[in-house]
Amino acid sequence: MWLPHDQDPRMQEGPTKGEKACLVGYLEHYRQTLALKCDGLSAEQLATRAVPPSNISLLGLVRHMARVEQSWFRRVIEEHMELPRLFQDEDGGFALPDVDDDLVRESHDIWESEIAYAREVLKRTDLDTVVDAKGDPAEVRDIIVHMIEEYARHCGHADLVRECIDGRTGQ
């Protein structure tokens, strides 16, 4: 096990109350999973690529998910399409400049900032709200489900990358 069950921050207390709480709970679970997979690693380890020629690394995943959070919550739901996408010129966050502790800290700060913003958006937005999702109408619930899928897929990548780095597996 990655962590003892009683120390896992992803474990919720009691059953969820309704559809929104359930969806947001799953989204939070996967956000925390990616953070756990990055925990305790050096900048060099976070930049380690999984399997050549793939450029997927844990730090790249953090940067990519900051970009995804920004795109869906700021640009689409909040209708700020004029905002430039994060890491636009850096292969969606996966192409890394020189990696050091400052880049790691900056990348995590951006990701955490986008998550905080998304949480605020979700607090005040109904699941039935319809937005223009890149040319197609979509309910906010569909966007949350997409975000869960996006994190779940990339947490699978994170599992493999972390195992390649130090052999650590689990949860």
Plain-language structure description:
- By secondary structure, the protein is mainly α.
- The protein has a single domain (42-166), classed as dinb family like domain (Four Helix Bundle (Hemerythrin (Met), subunit A), Up-down Bundle).
- The chain is 56% helix and 5% strand.
- The protein has helices at 19-38, 43-46, 58-77, 101-124, 140-166, and strands at residues 130-133, 136-139.
- Strands 1-2 form a two-stranded antiparallel sheet.
- It is globular, with a radius of gyration of 16 Å.
- The model has no long low-confidence stretch (mean pLDDT 90).
Lay out the secondary structure.
Layout: H1 19-38, H2 43-46, H3 58-77, H4 101-124, E1 130-133, E2 136-139, H5 140-166
Antiparallel strand pairs: 1-2
Mean model confidence by pLDDT: 90
Give me the CATH architecture, please. Up-down Bundle
Biggest sheet strand line-up = 1-2
Helix content: 55-70%
Q: Which runs of at least 5 residues are low in confidence (pLDDT < 50)?
A: none
Strand content: under 5%
Write down how many β-strands occur, each being a DSSP E stretch of 2 or more residues.
2
SSE-based structural type: mainly alpha
Q: In sequence order, what are the helices and strands, one letter per element?
A: HHHHEEH
How many separate domains? 1
Name of the CATH superfamily: dinb family like domain
CATH class: Mainly Alpha
Shape: globular
| Estimated radius of gyration | 16 Å
Major beta sheet, specifics? Answer: 2 strands, antiparallel
Q: Gap between N and C termini, in Å? A: 6 Å
CATH topology: Four Helix Bundle (Hemerythrin (Met), subunit A)
Number of helices: 5
